[in-house]
């Protein structure tokens, strides 16, 4: 099972048609659109996988805490957007999440769980808000939201499993972190 995680992750990244998953390229149509959305952009794939990878490196409580914080904040960001509230600089926040999470993995940051979960929550807020940009006005937000949450769980889980697979060779984790951080820098210029 573990030997298939890295190739699957690479395939997911390479199959992303655009760097940004929230470009407004067509209205979402339901659960499947919500599920596909996080996989359609490099920013979401890298950020969510990095959260899982970082969580795995921080230990047992973080494996639940960081993904839960990210997902909970994603729901809050999505709901905030549905209510019509504005969150400034969404694209900058998402790009900062890719850069920040990549650096956390690269540098093997080991902050207290509350700080790591807080950072993941802030980043998740931006990602959730961006998911709302794809929904057609008459679409059920519940169906779409359930789809993107399930995809988020899968991406976060891929990161945790990836960390477990590379634990014996920490350099691999750092290489992934440096790649995510470099992608974050590049996304600032896209």
Pick out its properties.
190 residues; mainly alpha; 8 helices; 0% strand
Overview of the structural elements:
The protein is an all-alpha fold and 190 residues long. The protein has one domain (50-187). It is 72% helix and 0% strand. Mean pLDDT is 84; it is low at 4-25.
Helix content: over 70%
Output the number of helix runs.
8
Distance between the termini: 35 Å
Structural class: mainly alpha
Radius of gyration: 15 Å
Q: Helix and strand string, N-terminal first?
A: HHHHHHHH
Report the mean per-residue pLDDT as an integer.
Answer: 84
How many domain units?
1
Largest sheet: none
Residue share in β-strands: under 5%
Number of strands: 0
Q: Which runs of at least 5 residues are low in confidence (pLDDT < 50)?
A: 4-25
Shape annotation: globular
Outline of this structure?
The protein has helices at residues 5-14, 31-36, 42-58, 60-82, 90-106, 113-132, 141-166, 170-187.
Secondary structure layout:
Elements: H1 5-14, H2 31-36, H3 42-58, H4 60-82, H5 90-106, H6 113-132, H7 141-166, H8 170-187
Pfam family, one: HupE_UreJ
Keywords: Membrane, Signal, Transmembrane, Transmembrane helix
Signal peptide: 1-21
């Amino acid at each position: 099972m573990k030997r298939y995680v890295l190739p699957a992750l690479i395939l997911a990244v390479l199959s992303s048609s655009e760097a940004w998953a929230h470009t407004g390229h067509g209205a979402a149509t339901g659960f499947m659109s919500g599920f596909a959305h996080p996989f359609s952009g490099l920013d979401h794939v890298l950020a969510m996988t990095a959260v899982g990878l970082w969580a795995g490196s921080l230990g047992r409580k973080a494996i639940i805490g960081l993904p839960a914080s990210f997902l909970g904040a994603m729901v809050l960001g999505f709901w905030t957007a549905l209510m019509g509230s504005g969150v400034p600089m969404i694209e900058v926040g998402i790009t900062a999440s890719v850069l920040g999470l990549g650096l956390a993995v690269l540098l093997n940051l080991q902050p207290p769980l509350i700080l790591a979960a807080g950072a993941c929550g802030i980043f998740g807020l931006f990602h959730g808000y961006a998911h709302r940009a794809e929904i057609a006005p008459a679409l059920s937000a519940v169906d779409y939201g359930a789809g993107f949450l399930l995809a988020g769980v899968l991406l976060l889980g891929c990161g945790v499993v990836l960390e477990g697979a590379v634990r014996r060779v920490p350099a691999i984790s750092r290489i992934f972190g440096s790649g995510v951080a470099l992608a974050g820098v590049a996304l600032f210029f896209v």
